[in-house]
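Q: How would the structure tokens look for this protein?
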Amino acid sequence: MQYLFLFTSLALMSFGAGGIRPCSLAFAADQINNPKNPKNARIMKSFFNWYYVSVGVSVMFSVVFIVYIQVKAGWIIGFGIPVGLMLFSSVMFFLGSFMYVKVKPNKTLLAGFAQVIVASWKNRHLTLPPHANNSGLWYFHSGSNLVQPTDKARFLNKACIIKNREKDIDSNGMPTDPWSLCTVRQVEELKAVIKVLPIWSTGITIAITISQQSFSVVQAGTMNRMVHNFEIPSTSYGAFGILTLTIWVAIYDRIIVPLLTKYTKKGKGLTLKQRMGIGIAISCLATLVAALVEKKRRNEAIREGFIDNPKGVVNMSAMCIAVAFFALGFGTGNLVASIIVKVVKIGTQRGGEVSCWAYGSVEDIKNWDEEEVDTKCDEEEHI
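A: Here is the predicted structure in token form.
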């Protein structure tokens, strides 16, 4: 019966996270997105930076204070506080619903992608028309600003070729068979996602690195965690990375970008690709530091005679783990926000749908990969 309640609660948490995580970022962006504002791009970049600052502050609060309460006061109070906070946030969310910008729902992107793929395959024997003066051969909705597909991934363009206008389009201007004829916008949306995939995939690796905090909890439990007269809970060391991420993103947005703007006269700071590259490089460095710390800890445990005592505490400060978290927080602060901004810039013309889908998929895939990493490490540990 206890397992039934446990698994039911975990399932409910998963359902809730599945609704919040993919939608919160896109919904928040809808509230401030204004394409008519000439400074909209800069405002959106700043928003994504500060979004992750707020996430960092909240996660740091939970890792430090909630974990400490769980250790000192027990699991009932430790879980009760998040329940109360979620109830409070739900009430506040509904109270403010009358002020929200509500973007009208559109059909799912995935169905549109499938239609483009099927239609392009059905029309694979068609010859692409010449590029110039052929807008009448492409299918698009009235008022659309996309009336002609781009030359990239041209094989997909066959999905929006009108073969016979009388047979392919009904009296309302809609395709008689959406699996044989798609709009130019549908084709360009799929191209945008294909273009985003390499950028999107870079987040998987660093997400796996971030998820390995469970190893650090085990490490810290076998090391000296005393700082003066205070013992840091082993589960709270992840706060160092979150603190670094939060501080770095805030400093970058409010100090570094204005300084770079002053000297480069471009008003953008580092490019998104530069920030992503820095983030990937620093995350690799963080993993290297973590490996060196673990090597030293294992050697120290063997030297002190704890080879058969996995719970033995070695004479080594657990603050060594914090160094890896500092580097990881710095790398994450550069990479994750840049990925989201780049995805939105390339693939979003419909209220952030591509960005939220890609971000949620990164989270899902890194969890699957994390399980594989954990399994491999367990196998190595038993050899």
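The chain is about 70% helix and 0% strand.

The first helix runs from residue 2 to 32.

Upvote if useful.
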